[in-house]
Design a protein that fits this description.
globular
């Protein structure tokens, strides 16, 4: 079922104020909700599942409430939006994004007793290269939880300013809608076709500064068995049998599509290309998944690996970048398998 995204004026004049009012009303019912959550926790598996979920929901609701008020204040303070494109206001909005994501991640870690392990430093630069340069970050697609961790890592750990291509349905969240539409971000209608996504990626990459990081999800969606089969079939039908044979070895990831990352590298050949693997929240795609498999006392592993310059030098050749990307994805898939099946598997 495809969600309808109303025009911007409806989202600004109706959805955003509605969320502010709804959160305000929610806060007035907190005592009653706490009683319900405590009673429900006694009948649910896990330790205080209902109370933990309620607490996290309240944290996110407060971020939505305070964030929208801050963004409205920024709109007024910037001359009713006329100066929002200036560096001062762009930096302000990145700070709002950074603080918001940091609060969400810290709340999740504390409430659910999670530990994040970064296995590789993103700044593994080769000798003779500058300490700072634009980055193209290609990550596996594994649900909103891991996406939060990715953005959090870029903003808080590596002091990078992310640029992301997102599905347009995320604009139904007023805070995400207002905030990211004021930053170098593109919301894409998936029904518009792959060409629109590739074009958006190229535009975002071309204007990057040395502290910016373009975030790409080459798989195009979360892993499912059906998507894996269809992706391999597409490779075979397009005559890329060698890549199809390699893709059959993937167990936890989908075959990466090279068009987007190729467009980014062609737009900014000076950018460092980084592959990000992560595991621990792979199964948390929907609210039903969260309810059934609320993660507690888990270690979330994240690995950042820089691709060597010679692996991305032939970006004009889609086949070459596809081969290099598939090689990185096979290594990523093996790493994920080790953490999910081997001695490092989360309990």
């Amino acid at each position: 079922m495809k969600l309808w995204v109303p025009p911007q004026w409806v989202r600004r004049l109706v959805l955003a104020p509605l969320v502010v009012v709804a959160v305000a009303l929610l806060l007035t019912t907190v005592p009653a909700l706490l009683v319900v959550a405590l009673v429900a926790s006694a009948f649910l598996p896990g330790t205080w599942r209902g109370l933990r979920l309620l607490s996290f929901t309240l944290v996110y609701a407060l971020i939505e409430f305070v964030g929208l008020l801050l963004l409205f204040g920024a709109w007024v303070g910037s001359g009713f939006g006329t100066q929002l494109h200036h560096d001062r206001w762009v930096s302000f909005h990145y700070k709002v994004l950074g603080v918001s994501v940091d609060i969400v991640v810290r709340a999740a870690m504390r409430l659910f007793h999670l530990t994040i392990v970064m296995e590789t430093d993103v700044h593994g630069h080769h000798a003779g290269q500058p300490a700072r340069q634009p980055a193209i970050v290609a990550s596996r697609h594994a649900g909103p939880g891991d996406s939060f961790l990715l953005v959090h890592g870029l903003l808080r750990r590596w002091a990078r300013r992310p640029r992301i291509v997102l599905k347009n349905t995320l604009q139904l969240d007023p805070f995400i809608d207002v905030l990211l539409n004021r930053l170098p971000t593109r919301f894409i209608d998936p029904s518009g076709g792959a060409d629109d996504v590739v074009a958006a990626i190229g535009e975002l990459a071309e204007s990057m500064g040395r502290d910016d990081a373009l975030v790409i999800f080459p798989e195009g969606g979360n892993f499912t068995a059906g998507r894996r089969v269809r992706a391999i079939d597409r490779l075979r039908k397009s005559g890329r049998d060698a890549l199809a044979q390699q893709a059959e070895q993937l167990r936890y990831t989908l075959p990466p599509r090279p068009a987007g990352i190729g467009a980014a590298i062609r737009a900014r050949p000076d950018a460092r290309v980084i592959l990000v693997a992560h595991t621990g929240l792979d199964h948390m795609d929907t609210l039903r998944d969260v309810w059934r498999g609320l993660p507690q006392n888990k270690t979330l592993a994240v690995r950042w690996v820089s691709m060597a310059p010679d692996e991305t030098a032939s970006a004009a050749d889609t086949e070459a970048i596809g081969t290099a990307l598939m090689s990185g994805w096979l290594d990523m898939d093996e790493w994920i398998a080790e953490h999910r099946e081997g001695p490092n598997a989360a309990e």
